[in-house]
Each structure stands twice: as structure tokens, then as C-alpha cells.
Specification:
8-stranded antiparallel β-sheet; 18 strands
Length: 381
């Protein structure tokens, strides 16, 4: 029995060494915070209180238990196969530290397992903030005792994912940016929100401030690793971070592709290719006029239509190929965003046609030129 136990421990250690040796350093550029549970293994015993969780680079940044009388605990095998974690009780465990990031994009990665967070809003996994009413973070929304989803956590967001993350080893990333905010689970886009970013002076792990009343909304479960980047990562850097974390913590990558669905058909049903070609020709005619008719309401309508269609096509490609798209992150698990985008483009086309009809009866010289550009290649739409 002792020999079997030794063999089991040896196997665990071998697996741990194998994982940590594969791509064991994530990109360092713009990395503002790096907390690793395995960094605690050399100095902490199983079940020991974690009063301080220092940045892996020994740069003076650290998360400290608030209050010191209720720290989370270290678990040597919290993630299985000899991989450790910091365990939060969901009642009063919080770690807090100072982290200064000026206004701008930021990206959070976290490896965790929720084992029973109960807050119906947003039990805080990681939160970044200066003013506690304006947070950049990721939290768990409890729908039932065994159904939990992730939520982009900032005041007024309310954007949650659809994947049940309860009692599963998970890798999530959240990007807060001037373009939009987006959340992934195990490498796939899960949900998104509007643009949001805020300057940061403080971070917390395992809970978040609740209505200026101190810490609440406690997370219950294991947290294995946290990385915070000051900026939006490139595709290459994003893939490097996720590969590092997936290999190290044995995270199963999701299949991001929607089986049996080709979102190109949605675009073609609403805006046929021939109609897009005609609109492109119309734009060319306006731009080739002398002088160019580009500072006009009609041309602005066309630009907006093309922007929506181009963004849709990029997102559609990402959805069909199962690839991540930066910096804008729509959900690949739901079609409502794509449908809304194309409906908006169709509404812009309706508005465009109204302007063209106005130009057709106008005596204004510019309006006459616009209508001439419309009719130049023949009747369009």
C-alpha cells in the first residue's frame, strides 16, 4: 500500500512537472499582476492560511487577507494531480492589494473552480477598482445551487454568459476596452458588453465591494492563477496565455464552432450579395464625383452600412472557424448580436433610400449630383 501511494505521488509530480514545463511563461509585456497558487507550494503546507499571496515576480505587489483573521486556505492538491489552489469559503475570505493602472484597456485571466457561490449578482473572482461603484472584474452569478454562470462585472453591466460553470475547472478571460467588453470561457467567446474601462488603484480576489458597505458577494471555490494585463492583447499573445494556462492546469478547451450553422446565410438572407455590390458601386460613384461627394449624409449612411457588414463578416468568420476575435468580442454561443447587427444595417439601408428619394426631387445641386451617382449604373435596389 505504501508503494502504491509512493507511485501515485510520483505520477502526480510527473504530471505536474510535465504541465508546468510546457510553455511555462506567459507573455510578460504589460503584465501588471501575476498570482500563482503553485508559487506557494514551496513554503506552505496543506490547509495553511494564506494571509499573503505575492506576485510571482517578487516585485512587491501582493494580495493580503482582509481581515487577517479570515484568510483563505492553501490546498496542495486543490486542482487535482498535485496541482494546488487557494480555497475561498464563500463567507468571509478576501485578498486585497494595491495595483495602479491608468485609464485604458485591461485584460483579466483567471483559472478557478466554483463550488457553491450563492450571490445572485456577482460573487467576485477578481475585481479591479478605484471607486468601488465603478469596478472592472469577473464574477459568478448563481442561478440555482447547481447552476452558475460568469458575469462581466461592472456597475450596470448585467451581461452574463450561458455556460454552467459549477464545480468545473475553468479558464476565463475578460477584456475591458474602449471598443467593448468581452468575456470568454475556456477560449470561446461567451458574452460581451458595451465599452467600459476605469483607472485602477486596488484589486481584490475572492470577493468584491458591495454598495460601499465593505466586502461582500464572496466567491466559494478554488482559485489557481490570476493574470492582469494593462491593455488588450494581440491574438498571438492571447493564444500564448491561454495555451500556457490550459496546459498547466489541464483545462479542456471548448469547441467554439457552432455545429451545423453557417452565419453567412443570415447576412445573405437580409442583404443579398447583389445588393451589397450595388451599394459598393454607389459609394464608388460618390467618391469619384468631382468634387467627391463624401461629406454628405448619404455617404455617411453608406459608411455605416459597410462598417456593420464588415464587422459582421469578421465575427461570422471567427464563429465558423472557432477562432477568437480581438479586440471586439461578441458571443459565439448566441446569435442575437449578429441578428441585431444585420437588422441595423438593413435599417440604415432604409434610411439611405429615404435620402436618395429626397435627392431625386430636390433642386439642390449637390442633391442632384448624388441622385445622378445613384442612377449612373442603372436602377439598383
Amino acid at each position: 500500500q505504501q508503494q502504491q501511494q509512493q507511485q501515485s505521488e510520483s505520477k502526480k509530480k510527473s504530471l505536474q512537472n510535465e504541465r508546468t514545463s510546457m510553455n511555462d511563461t506567459p507573455p510578460q509585456m504589460s503584465l501588471s499582476l501575476w498570482l500563482k497558487a503553485d508559487n506557494l507550494s514551496a513554503t506552505m503546507s496543506d490547509g495553511q492560511p494564506v494571509t499573503t499571496w505575492a506576485d510571482a515576480r517578487n516585485n512587491g505587489i501582493a494580495a493580503n487577507a482582509i481581515p487577517t483573521s479570515h484568510p483563505p486556505l492553501f490546498a496542495k492538491n486543490g486542482f487535482g494531480n498535485g496541482m494546488p489552489s487557494v480555497v475561498f469559503d464563500g463567507a468571509n475570505n478576501t485578498l486585497e492589494g494595491q495595483l495602479h493602472i491608468n485609464t485604458g484597456d485591461k485584460t483579466i485571466f483567471a483559472v478557478f473552480r466554483d463550488t457553491g457561490s450563492v450571490d445572485p449578482c456577482c460573487s467576485g473572482i477578481v475585481s479591479l477598482w478605484t471607486d468601488v461603484s465603478d469596478i472592472n472584474g469577473v464574477g459568478v452569478k448563481s442561478l440555482s445551487p447547481t447552476n452558475k454562470v460568469l458575469q462581466i462585472d461592472w456597475s450596470g453591466s448585467g451581461n452574463e454568459g450561458v455556460t454552467n460553470i459549477f464545480n468545473q475547472s475553468m479558464l476565463t478571460s475578460v477584456n475591458f476596452a474602449l471598443q467593448s467588453s468581452g468575456l470568454t470561457i475556456n477560449g470561446c467567446n461567451e458574452t460581451y458588453a458595451g465599452p467600459h474601462e476605469t483607472p485602477i488603484t486596488t484589486f481584490s480576489v475572492g470577493a468584491r465591494f458591495a454598495n460601499n458597505d465593505g466586502y461582500g458577494r464572496f466567491f466559494k471555490g478554488d482559485i489557481a492563477e490570476v493574470l492582469v494585463y494593462n491593455g488588450t492583447l494581440s491574438n498571438a499573445d492571447y493564444n500564448s496565455v491561454t495555451t500556457y494556462l490550459e496546459n498547466k492546469w489541464n483545462i479542456a478547451k471548448k469547441n467554439c464552432t457552432l455545429s451545423g450553422f453557417n452565419c453567412s446565410s443570415l447576412l445573405n438572407d437580409v442583404i443579398p450579395p447583389s445588393q451589397l455590390a450595388n451599394l459598393t458601386q454607389f459609394a464608388d460613384n460618390l467618391e469619384q464625383a468631382s468634387p467627391p461627394l463624401v461629406d454628405t449624409l448619404v455617404h455617411n449612411f453608406l459608411e455605416l452600412i459597410f462598417q456593420y457588414v464588415d464587422s459582421f463578416q469578421q465575427r461570422c468568420t471567427a464563429m465558423n472557424n472557432g477562432k477568437f476575435l480581438f479586440p471586439d468580442r461578441p458571443p459565439q454561443t448566441r446569435l442575437v448580436t449578429l441578428q441585431t447587427m444585420i437588422q441595423t444595417a438593413q435599417q440604415l439601408i432604409t434610411g439611405l433610400m429615404k435620402q436618395v428619394n429626397i435627392c431625386s426631387v430636390s433642386t439642390d445641386p449637390v442633391a442632384k449630383e448624388i441622385y445622378a451617382a445613384w442612377t449612373k449604373p442603372g436602377k439598383f435596389i
